Amino acid sequence: MSTEFAIVMKEIGFGYHRKPVLQSLSLNLKKGRYYALLGPNGAGKSTLFALLCQLLRPQAGTISIVGVDAAKTPRQALAKTGVVFQQSTLDLDLTVEQNLGYHAALHGMGALQTRTAITRELSRLDVADKRKVKVRALNGGHRRRVEIARALLHDPEVLLLDEATVGLDIPTRQQINQDLRELCRQKALTVLSSTHLIDDIQPQDHLIVLHKGTVQLDMPCADAVSPYSYQGLSELYQQLTLKEEVAA
Amino acid sequence: MTFWVAFLGITKRELLRFFQQRARLLSALVRPLLWLVVFAAGFRAALGIAIIEPYDTYITYDVYIVPGLAGIIMLFNGMQSSLSMVYDREMGSMKVMLMSPLPRPFLLIARLMAGAIISVLQVYAFLLIAWLLDIEMTAVGYISAVPAIFLAALMLGALGLFLSSFIKQLENFAGVMNFVVFPMFFLSSALYPLWKMRESSEVLYWISEYNPFTHAVELVRFALYEQMNAEAAVVTLMTAVVFSALAIWGYDPKKGMFRRQGKGAG
Lengths: 248, 266
Hints:
The complex is a heterodimer.
Chain A: E1 5-16, E2 19-30, E3 34-38, H1 45-52, E4 60-65, E5 68-69, H2 74-79, E6 81-84, H3 96-106, H4 111-124, H5 140-152, E7 158-162, H6 170-187, E8 190-195, E9 206-211, E10 214-220, H7 221-225, H8 233-247
Chain B: H1 2-20, H2 22-46, H3 61-91, H4 93-98, H5 104-132, H6 139-166, H7 173-186, H8 194-200, H9 202-210, H10 212-224, H11 230-250, H12 257-261
Helix pairs in contact in B: 1-5, 2-3, 2-5, 3-5, 3-6, 3-7, 3-10, 5-6, 6-10, 6-11, 8-9, 10-11
């Protein structure tokens, strides 16, 4: 099992102040696949990410990242994980290289290894020319690319993207989305990308729909749309997440 | 080696940020200089300082308050550092540090030490200006004060770190200034020797006597005059350890800040 799956979540439960946010959530994410996590605001996506990043600990259930039990050896699990948070976490007054260098140091990477990794990832994300530029001078798209490059610097096996394309214009979003799928293929990386933008999702993705802390759907996107004979993903999503509100 | 690399990385980031924010250095220096040049000048005539340890002669008031003003630089830097932790947390960059595969206590202590190094730099910039104003210590005094200043800065940084783990929003920071920083400063030996305070109020004297900031200031004062105040060193060290432990507890994901924040936006 540990060889096939990059992320295994079993019966996860979590709540804030007795208000349950995630309930008996179980997911198995295969290695080298792109998973789109779709859900409305308040569905529990950010909490799920905080649990995977170990900023929170589950109150019930277990999480394993590439075969490593996150509760028993959290540091080892973090070493295999790269994250792009919803909100930009770059230091605006430092250059791209200084920001990436800081991340590399936090992962204990030596000077030579850091330089090589920075060159590799900035080139991969097509922002090599921004290396010496202060982040403040970058546009939103470039900042996102730098953040993705940073998340990949320590060569993780799992990449978590928490609404990474939010606030970007449509062409930039499309380009980043395309690049992320390419990255997934190139590096055999497992990507879990949360979004509430349906056009971020592509037919070849695996789709997970989260609503009110439970998994409503967990299957390849192409399979999810056709058997239910919905007009498209948008209709399926509305059926899954809005039916209760409509009924009410 | 990994730990050393991470420590250097954290320190480098703090230094880069510090030198980017020149206004921060300037305001850190202006505040104590105002006390030294204006306040001390006014009180110089009103207050005479008797011979007390570690001084071996009568001293003027401006000479007396230099270690106290060094203390306030460290106190404000500790709070500034704590403020930037709260800011980092609100801005999310704190998460970058906590996502490191290195142990969280190590990361927080490294951050604390990086902040203390910045405090030491600020204090020495202030001591340089004080030297230009003819308030001089010996060369050995300046050197022997380095570990004392570092330890005091560490303690005040630990206090800031502890507070930052419990402050949910930047707005709450003003309360910290009113309820922590100012009482800590005024109820200490920074501005006046405690025997003077005792003449007017026994209660305030004892509060000041137990104030860890008093011990931090006295540690620096003695060290600047090439003397070791063991009691002050022990109290400062113990306080630093206690506040660091509390801060580490505060940042524990099982108990700490992210949990209390109750964040679950999506």
